[in-house]
Amino acid sequence: MRLGVLTTSYPRRPDDLAGTFVAGLAGWLAAQGDELEVLAPAPPAPALPPAEAEPRPGIRLEQLRYARRPRLFYGAGAPDNLQHPATWLQVPGFVLRLARACHARAAGWDAVISHWLLPCGVIAARAGRGLPHLAIAHSSDVHLLGRMGPLAAAALAALARPRTAL
Most C-beta atoms within 10 A of its C-beta, which of 3, 46, 152, 163? Predict the structure, then answer.
């Protein structure tokens, strides 16, 4: 199977702990013979030289550049990084870049997996061209939805697609 994976966290180098559980699932699927294309945010600076950027056989990582000096993800993580008001200005750029990349590549995928409901799950459900979609929620999703009040229902409704499983 050809699988798209949308995430806001993926290891940038072999010793990086960010998103290791995403990479672990991707590695297991690749070992089963699936081909994966991972769409993740670009780190603030290149983490590896281009020749070393391919994580492992069967997995193609595309780091999406969304700002001149990206600081929305990695480091302390988006929830902490968003405490700085200027970081909020990077949210629309990343969401748009991820949605465009997902929509453009989905024609070559058989299914899509998203990690984190916001923004990845909603984008995969909307821009994934109706593909079968597994949306994987993490504890930060639960906490975020709890703080969103009435907007949480709208976010969950955006995930409610016939071919999306949570």
Answer: 3
Q: How many CB atoms lie within 10 A of CB 81?
A: 17
Q: Contact, 74 vs 17, CB < 8 A?
A: no
pLDDT digits (tens, 9 = 90+) for 145-155: 888 888 889 88
pLDDT mean over 27-55? 79
Work out the number of other CB atoms within 10 angstroms of the CB of residue 121.
27
Per-residue burial over 143-163, b if 16 or more Cβ lie within 10 Å, else e, is ebbeeeeeeeeebeebbebee
d(CA 155, CA 146): 12
**CB-based contact 134:165 (threshold 8 Å):** yes
- SS3 (DSSP) at 35: strand
* 95 Cβ neighbours under 8 A, 6+ residues apart: 119, 123
Q: Around 40, how many Cα atoms within 13 Å sit in the side-chain half-sphere?
A: 27
Backbone angles phi, psi at 40, to 5 degrees: -140, 160
Please give the Cα distance from 115 to 97 (Å, whole number).
Answer: 16
| 62 DSSP assignment | E
Cβ atoms of 13 and 47 within 8 Å: the answer is yes
pLDDT bin (cut points 50, 70, 90) of residue 55 is low
